[in-house]
Write a structure and sequence with these properties.
The structure holds 2 protein chains of 2 kinds.
Chain A: E1 14-19, H1 31-39, E2 44-50, H2 56-69, E3 73-78, H3 81-94, E4 102-106, H4 108-112, H5 118-137, E5 145-148, E6 153-156, H6 160-171, E7 176-179, E8 194-195, E9 200-201, H7 202-215, E10 219-222, E11 225-233, E12 236-243, H8 258-262, E13 270-271, E14 280-281, E15 284-285, E16 297-298, H9 304-308, H10 314-319, E17 332-338, E18 340-343, E19 347-349, E20 366-368, H11 369-376, E21 396-403, H12 418-433, E22 436-441, H13 451-460, E23 464-467, E24 470-475, E25 483-489, E26 494-500, E27 502-507, E28 509-511, H14 515-521, E29 549-551, H15 561-581, E30 583-586, E31 591-593, E32 613-616, E33 621-624, H16 634-638, E34 644-646, H17 651-662
Parallel strand pairs in A: 1-2, 1-3, 3-4, 6-7, 6-18, 7-10, 18-29, 20-27, 21-22, 21-27, 22-23
Antiparallel strand pairs in A: 5-30, 8-9, 11-12, 12-17, 13-14, 15-16, 19-28, 24-25, 25-26, 31-34, 32-33
Chain B: H1 5-10, E1 25-30, H2 34-43, E2 52-57, H3 65-73, E3 78-83, H4 94-111, E4 119-123, H5 129-146, H6 162-171
Helix pairs in contact in B: 2-5
Classes of the chains: A alpha/beta, B alpha/beta.
């Protein structure tokens, strides 16, 4: 099937632009050969190659050719359309052509970057260009539709990321729904004592922001609530929220906490989640003193009224005419409408029991970093004293880095924050107990402003650093319950066994246990590790593949507080940018029915997931509501008579592409 | 030890002018999962066989069985479809529709004498760049072993005879 150069009947004049992308493409693909080949294809008036077609001179080149040569179809062979399709469509539009008279050929991600054989890669490039040239001839002018955008935003997760994003959006005058599944906002940051490397108190910088959220007139805060369903699309999402019962009426509770004192449990007996189960609370409690909202909550698992129905209900008595306690509260749901969504659902701390040879859960003096964080905190279970479970002050402490990180058996990735928080804990433990502290590390990773300086400071304070992965932790026989920490010191090339009173495991960060359910609910994707996947690792780090859904904080990957706050600000800015234009331009890739061909068989109607297709009884034809159509094309593929067509993906365009790919000489 | 020198001298000389068979594969990837995975394979500089050419569609549910037939009719040695994992479709259930069509189509292809390994459906998420590499290499390997596509003579695509044409008219 050799092709001959002819003049197109319809006056189609195609320009083909092959990008070198520096050496990214030109290093593997013979761009000159591609250009020469493209010039021989029917309909092609001009074929050029250029170092960076996406650069301003590259764009100007295309515009000039459109004006001077009368080109009316453009093909650019460069990177993935996901990266620059929009760029070039705009170029085409700026030159006065319809932006959809354009087709992009991916010769970088799908060709030069994945092949080493220069000849084969060049042949592949030729096939792809030939297919695009055949396809672009059949392109039709299309118009983008505009739909209005709801200015309200939903933020899921009330940790520092969600809080910061909420305040940014609310300060910009947008209404924010902040949904948190726990009884208070604050997230992990509220549990920390100090923050690295400046050692400012976490509560001191976080709690004012938490209070600001509660009092902001633009923020609706829902704790003990979860998103159960998300419908709609960018600009117009319908979100269903489940409110779990608190058994305390939020508006009636004044936060006096007399009920906690009055509880029939005179002593706190229930392990306290907020203190990593190291302390105790009562069945009616407030998660921590600065919790927001300042409203108590009843735990139905331990409350006697729920267990037996025969409690004296002293809490109700003392609450008196405030009448805030309601044992009959039920779960409720409500649906809200928002235009954009920011996910800030945070992380899960690695379960140290998964590394059995470190003895967590077996030896009482093996702790996790977060537990020690609570021990150090003045509001924690020991009022800020670092003491072991038997009340002793540790004299020697080992801090084990990379527990559940950089490990073939658990997680291969680096959790990014552990080196720094291990250094912080070393400093704080030393300060509180004057103990001798040994940090066992694989590599010391301190990239960040003031981080390396902090490392040097901790080293100067006398913390011992042992470079080596800890292999085993076990009781030291005849040493009064001390533990032996064994590691190969790779700097000294010896095995070291160091007896300590306390071991701190610096556990890594993992995706939330229900991250997969959440991502399905919001129609987004996860990376291999299970964190939510950003649209582009560098150029769209807070966007997702679903328009209008943004990411902030550790749900996207492990990061420290400064990075989390920066990302939350970025997510808010992206959402604001979307809202402030006031409308969304939709891709015109919707489906439509060719009435003269439609037989009215109704095959397509039940296949549409958006109920966009209806049956016009008067005409006995299928009808597609373009506003509801999302452009998947399932109905098109199902139509037995070929009467349903999809803009940008018409049958004949795809057939032309198939034939083009295979029509080699 | 047997004498092999005589065997060697009798061996058929290699046909140097005949290039080795390189299968041609047309792939239809959905834009949200598998196309992104192929992009990820690219940005991760994974290397795989250069025999596959990708056509991007919005959803695997858009893939008309006729596209697959057209690819085979135009000389493809294999067709690969890539979509989102079950439950992950960007359009809720397009991949399920794709799966149903693929199952039916496999029976048609069998009738046409097209070997099973020539037509493949894979669920590859946007995070699974390496899966793209593995699947493509595996498929190309199998197609190399199968050799060029040769459909059963009696069903090879050809224009309809006047009788057949008339029959079809009646059916409509």
């Amino acid at each position: 099937m050799a092709e001959s150069k002819d003049i197109d009947r319809n006056g189609v004049q195609i320009g083909v632009y092959v990008c070198h992308c520096g050496t990214n493409i030109a290093g593997t693909v013979d761009v000159k050969a591609l250009t020469e080949y493209a010039a021989t294809l029917p309909g092609v008036t001009m074929a050029r190659n250029y170092k960076y077609v996406c650069s301003t001179p590259g764009q100007e080149l295309i515009k000039r050719d459109i004006h001077e040569l009368g080109l009316n179809r453009i093909v650019v062979a460069a990177c993935s359309p996901c990266l620059h399709e929009k760029t070039f469509r705009n170029v085409v539009a700026e030159a006065g052509l319809n932006p959809y008279y354009f087709q992009m050929v991916n010769i970088r991600e799908h060709d030069s970057w994945v092949h080493t054989d220069k000849r084969a890669a060049t042949e592949k490039g030729k096939d792809l260009i030939r297919a695009a040239v055949r396809r672009v001839r059949l392109h039709k002018p299309l118009e983008r539709k505009r739909v209005s955008i709801n200015p309200a935003v939903l933020i899921v997760g009330g940790g520092i990321a969600g809080i910061h994003a909420a305040l940014t959006m609310a300060n910009a005058g947008k209404h924010v729904y902040l949904v948190e599944r726990d009884a208070t906002i604050g997230g992990h940051m509220a549990m920390f004592d100090k923050t690295f490397p400046t050692l400012d108190c976490a509560a001191c910088i976080l709690t004012p922001k938490m209070t600001a959220v509660k009092s902001h007139h633009n923020i609706t805060l829902w704790t003990l609530s979860e998103v159960t369903q998300v419908d709609g699309y960018v600009g117009n999402y319908q979100v269903t929220i489940k409110h779990k019962p608190r058994y305390v009426i939020e508006d009636a509770c004044v936060g006096c906490m007399e009920c906690i004192d009055a509880c029939v449990y005179k002593q706190a007996k229930v392990p306290d989640e907020f203190n990593m189960y190291l302390g105790k609370r009562k069945p009616i409690y407030i998660p921590f003193p600065q919790a927001v909202p300042q409203v108590v909550v009843i735990d139905r698992e331990s409350c006697i009224e729920f267990k037996s129905g025969k409690c004296k209900k002293t809490c109700v008595e003392v609450c008196a005419d405030r009448k805030a306690i309601d044992f009959k509260q039920q779960e409720t749901t409500e649906t809200i409408e928002v235009g954009t969504i920011i996910l800030a659902t945070g992380f899960f701390t690695f379960d140290a029991k998964r590394v059995p040879y470190y003895g967590y859960g077996i030896y009482p003096n093996v702790y996790t970093g977060l537990e020690v964080e609570r021990l150090i905190n003045a509001a924690g279970p020991t009022n800020g004293e670092v003491i072991l479970r038997d009340g002793r002050k540790p004299q020697r402490v080992a801090i084990v880095h990379c527990v559940g990180s950089r490990d073939e058996n658990t997680n291969r990735y680096c959790s990014r924050v552990c080196c720094m928080y291990s250094l912080k804990l070393a400093h704080l433990i030393k300060e509180k107990t004057e103990a001798e502290v040994f940090n066992f590390y694989i590599d010391m990773r301190t990239p960040g402003k003031g981080f390396e300086e902090f490392y040097n400071r901790v080293a100067d304070e006398g913390t011992h650093f042992v470079r080596g992965r800890v292999a085993d932790i076990y009781p030291n026989p005849g040493d009064g319950g001390r533990l032996l920490v064994c590691a190969e010191d790779t700097l000294m090339s010896t095995v070291r066994k160091i007896p300590v009173d306390m071991v701190v495991l610096s556990t890594g960060l993992e995706p939330q246990a229900d991250a997969q359910d959440v991502r399905r609910r919001f129609h987004i994707t996860c990376s291999t590790e299970g964190f939510f996947l950003e649209r582009h690792p560098k150029l769209a780090p807070v966007n997702t593949f679903t328009d209008g859904v943004f990411l902030a904080g550790c749900c996207q990957g492990p990061k420290d507080i400064p990075d989390t706050v920066a990302q939350a600000g970025a997510a808010a800015a992206e959402a604001l940018a979307l809202i402030d234009i006031g409308y969304i331009e939709q891709e015109p890739n919707t489906a439509h029915v060719l009435e003269e061909v439609c037989s009215g068989c109704k095959t397509c109607i039940p296949l549409c997931p958006y109920q966009a297709i209806s049956f016009a009884e008067n005409k006995k034809k299928a009808e597609i509501n373009e506003v509801l159509c999302k452009g998947c094309g399932t109905c098109v593929a199902s139509c037995p008579s070929g009467s349903v067509q999809q803009n940008l993906f018409e049958d004949e365009q795809i057939f032309a592409e198939i034939e083009g790919l295979l029509a080699y000489a | 030890m047997p004498d092999v020198s005589s065997n060697l001298s009798q061996a058929v000389p290699l046909e140097a002018e005949q290039p080795a068979f390189e299968p041609r594969v047309v792939a239809f990837f959905c834009t949200w999962c598998t196309y992104m995975a192929a992009d990820l394979a690219g940005t991760s500089r994974m290397k795989y066989a250069p025999n596959v050419r990708v056509i991007r569609v919005m959803c695997s549910g858009r893939i008309d069985p006729q596209f697959v037939l057209a690819a085979f009719a135009n000389g493809a040695d294999g067709v690969l479809i890539g979509g989102c994992h079950p439950g992950d479709c960007h359009y809720q259930e397009g991949n399920y529709n794709c799966l149903r069509r693929v199952r039916l189509l496999k029976r048609v292809l069998e009738e046409l004498g097209i070997e099973e390994d020539r037509f493949r459906l894979e669920w590859i998420s946007a995070a699974e760049g390496d899966r793209v590499r593995v699947v493509i290499n595996d498929m190309v390997e199998k197609l190399r072993a199968l050799g060029p596509l040769q459909m059963k003579k009696e069903v090879a695509l050809r224009p309809l005879s006047p009788e057949e044409h008339a029959l079809q008219e009646v059916a409509v």
